[in-house]
Design goal:
The structure holds two protein chains of two kinds.
Chain A: H1 2-9, H2 12-41, H3 47-50
Chain B: H1 2-9, H2 22-28, H3 36-61, H4 88-100, H5 123-131, E1 134-137, E2 146-149, H6 163-169, H7 181-184, H8 188-197, E3 213-214, E4 222-223, H9 244-259, H10 263-296
Antiparallel strand pairs in B: 1-2, 3-4
The chains are: A mainly alpha, B mainly alpha.
Chain lengths: 55, 307
Amino acid sequence: MKVIYNTLFKRTSTYAVAIIASTFFFERAVDVSANAIWESINKGKLWKDIKGKYE
Amino acid sequence: MAATLRRFHGLRLLKSTPALNLQQAKQLSSAGSWASNNKKLIGAVGAITGGVGALLFALEQSVQASGSEVHSPAQPWNHKGLFSSLDHQSVRRGYEVYKQVCSACHSMQYIAYRNLVGVTHTEAEAKAEAEQITVKDGPDDSGNFFDRPGKLSDYFPSPYPNEEAARAANNGAYPPDLSYIVSARKGGEDYIFSLLTGYHDAPAGVVLRDGQYFNPYFPGGAISMAQVLYNEVIEYEDGTPPTQSQFAKDVATFLKWTSEPEHDDRKRILIKVFGILGFLTVISYYIKRHKWSSLKSRKIVFTPKEK
């Protein structure tokens, strides 16, 4: 905890960088996992599942 | 921001205090400074909002016994769940039904061929679909209008040039545009399904004029659209058994998609919203416990003064 505080949160500059970087990874993680859940719930019903038949 | 906070709370919010005591916590509330008239006004606004909401809910839930039409039963649509997408194979079959049956009388002027790409058709297939229609375009270099095959950006063709022509061709009844019909009718896709499969012989006592048919799901019972869906009226390209209820189910699913093209995205984003709000709930709970820990674990000790 102390290490994180001293390296990242103590100065505004590093704090801002930490926020922006963690936002990127958090957003990607939420996005990818939400899509994976969506596709597993609706397996076989989505366009990407039936697309192969028509190409 | 800081100036605004200072105006409301003095400096108390901004000052770092080791532990907030109850006296200070009370002073942080901005409700203390309201005049009693203000409190009454806010109370009245709250009561009225709640009352109107309850009234609307009661009206929506009330038994709908007036009117003579039968209410469509709820069908087990596989897109009904909170996280369930549309069945795109069914939407594609529904497009076939619309194109070969419904489009003879009903327009769908807000849907373009490009909307099919990535939903029911590949780009090449959608282009081939569009090329089957003829579109009047122009003016060209010499100022003349000309006919050309359709492009992806063209909207579905309308069977009649205007409403008057549609009425003249259909005994005075206007076949409604089907683009948003599922959202525009009470009961949505259940209503469409029931209407398409619910044709009957008129019971004794019901008088129908020329060109009218009996359908208990249609308000009034007398509908000007004849029954169009019968078993094997068209053939599906994917070999699905061509039964009347299959046609009705597929076309209702297709119309659900045209009415709510954002349906799938909406539900996918809901999963994301749950994820993010769940994360924020956990954080808020942690911060609340953290901030209150010193207050909740304090001890009040009475030390008598020494004489």
